[in-house]
Specification:
The protein is mainly alpha-helical. The protein has helices at 5-68, 74-98, 105-114.
Length: 116
Protein backbone atom coordinates (compact mmCIF):
# COMPACT_ATOMS: atom_id res chain seq x y z
CA UNK A 1 0.00 0.00 0.00
CA UNK A 2 1.38 3.32 -0.99
CA UNK A 3 0.40 6.83 0.18
CA UNK A 4 1.04 9.80 -2.06
CA UNK A 5 2.38 12.44 0.32
CA UNK A 6 2.08 15.29 -2.20
CA UNK A 7 -1.65 14.72 -2.64
CA UNK A 8 -2.11 14.39 1.11
CA UNK A 9 -0.23 17.66 1.71
CA UNK A 10 -2.31 19.48 -0.92
CA UNK A 11 -5.59 18.21 0.56
CA UNK A 12 -4.47 19.16 4.07
CA UNK A 13 -3.40 22.63 2.86
CA UNK A 14 -6.73 23.24 1.12
CA UNK A 15 -8.58 22.13 4.22
CA UNK A 16 -6.49 24.39 6.48
CA UNK A 17 -6.93 27.43 4.24
CA UNK A 18 -10.66 26.92 3.83
CA UNK A 19 -11.19 26.43 7.54
CA UNK A 20 -9.32 29.66 8.29
CA UNK A 21 -11.16 31.69 5.64
CA UNK A 22 -14.67 30.51 6.42
CA UNK A 23 -14.49 30.04 10.19
CA UNK A 24 -15.48 33.59 11.13
CA UNK A 25 -18.36 33.98 8.68
CA UNK A 26 -19.95 30.65 9.63
CA UNK A 27 -19.93 31.16 13.39
CA UNK A 28 -23.21 33.11 13.52
CA UNK A 29 -24.94 30.62 11.22
CA UNK A 30 -23.70 27.71 13.32
CA UNK A 31 -25.23 29.07 16.53
CA UNK A 32 -28.62 29.37 14.84
CA UNK A 33 -28.20 25.95 13.26
CA UNK A 34 -27.27 24.27 16.54
CA UNK A 35 -30.08 25.96 18.47
CA UNK A 36 -32.57 24.68 15.89
CA UNK A 37 -30.92 21.28 16.08
CA UNK A 38 -31.17 21.13 19.87
CA UNK A 39 -34.82 22.25 19.79
CA UNK A 40 -35.72 19.53 17.29
CA UNK A 41 -33.72 16.98 19.29
CA UNK A 42 -35.66 17.92 22.42
CA UNK A 43 -38.95 17.59 20.52
CA UNK A 44 -37.99 14.18 19.12
CA UNK A 45 -36.74 12.97 22.51
CA UNK A 46 -40.02 14.02 24.16
CA UNK A 47 -42.07 12.14 21.57
CA UNK A 48 -39.91 9.04 21.74
CA UNK A 49 -40.05 9.07 25.53
CA UNK A 50 -43.85 8.97 25.47
CA UNK A 51 -43.83 6.10 22.96
CA UNK A 52 -41.28 4.15 25.00
CA UNK A 53 -43.29 4.60 28.19
CA UNK A 54 -46.46 3.32 26.49
CA UNK A 55 -44.75 0.32 24.90
CA UNK A 56 -42.99 -0.58 28.15
CA UNK A 57 -46.37 -0.49 29.91
CA UNK A 58 -47.66 -3.08 27.46
CA UNK A 59 -44.47 -5.09 27.98
CA UNK A 60 -44.88 -5.10 31.74
CA UNK A 61 -48.50 -6.25 31.38
CA UNK A 62 -47.36 -9.04 29.02
CA UNK A 63 -44.69 -10.13 31.49
CA UNK A 64 -47.26 -10.11 34.31
CA UNK A 65 -49.65 -12.29 32.28
CA UNK A 66 -46.80 -14.63 31.36
CA UNK A 67 -45.67 -14.93 34.96
CA UNK A 68 -49.25 -15.66 36.00
CA UNK A 69 -49.18 -18.71 33.72
CA UNK A 70 -45.69 -19.76 34.85
CA UNK A 71 -43.54 -18.48 31.98
CA UNK A 72 -41.74 -15.55 33.54
CA UNK A 73 -39.30 -14.01 31.03
CA UNK A 74 -36.58 -12.40 33.14
CA UNK A 75 -34.60 -11.12 30.15
CA UNK A 76 -37.54 -9.05 28.93
CA UNK A 77 -38.23 -7.70 32.41
CA UNK A 78 -34.61 -6.66 32.90
CA UNK A 79 -34.50 -5.10 29.42
CA UNK A 80 -37.62 -3.05 30.16
CA UNK A 81 -36.28 -1.92 33.53
CA UNK A 82 -32.91 -0.89 32.07
CA UNK A 83 -34.60 0.90 29.16
CA UNK A 84 -36.89 2.85 31.47
CA UNK A 85 -33.95 3.76 33.71
CA UNK A 86 -31.95 5.07 30.75
CA UNK A 87 -34.84 7.12 29.39
CA UNK A 88 -35.71 8.52 32.81
CA UNK A 89 -32.11 9.49 33.60
CA UNK A 90 -31.16 10.91 30.19
CA UNK A 91 -31.99 14.51 31.14
CA UNK A 92 -29.84 14.26 34.27
CA UNK A 93 -26.97 12.73 32.32
CA UNK A 94 -27.10 15.49 29.69
CA UNK A 95 -27.15 18.20 32.37
CA UNK A 96 -24.19 16.54 34.08
CA UNK A 97 -22.18 16.24 30.86
CA UNK A 98 -22.61 19.88 29.80
CA UNK A 99 -22.28 21.15 33.40
CA UNK A 100 -25.35 23.41 33.22
CA UNK A 101 -29.14 23.21 33.47
CA UNK A 102 -29.92 22.61 29.78
CA UNK A 103 -32.98 20.44 30.38
CA UNK A 104 -35.20 21.69 33.18
CA UNK A 105 -38.03 19.95 35.01
CA UNK A 106 -40.56 22.17 33.22
CA UNK A 107 -39.36 20.86 29.84
CA UNK A 108 -39.82 17.26 30.95
CA UNK A 109 -43.21 17.54 32.63
CA UNK A 110 -44.67 20.03 30.17
CA UNK A 111 -46.17 17.32 27.93
CA UNK A 112 -47.59 15.47 30.93
CA UNK A 113 -49.40 18.55 32.23
CA UNK A 114 -50.78 19.78 28.89
CA UNK A 115 -51.60 16.32 27.53
CA UNK A 116 -50.29 17.11 24.04
Amino acid sequence: MHINLKKLAVIFGIFAISSILYATSCFAAETVLFSDLTNKGLEIFGGMREIIYAVSGFGIVAIAVGSFFGTMNWKWLVAIIIGLFVIASTAGIINYMVDSEVITDEMITNSLISGK
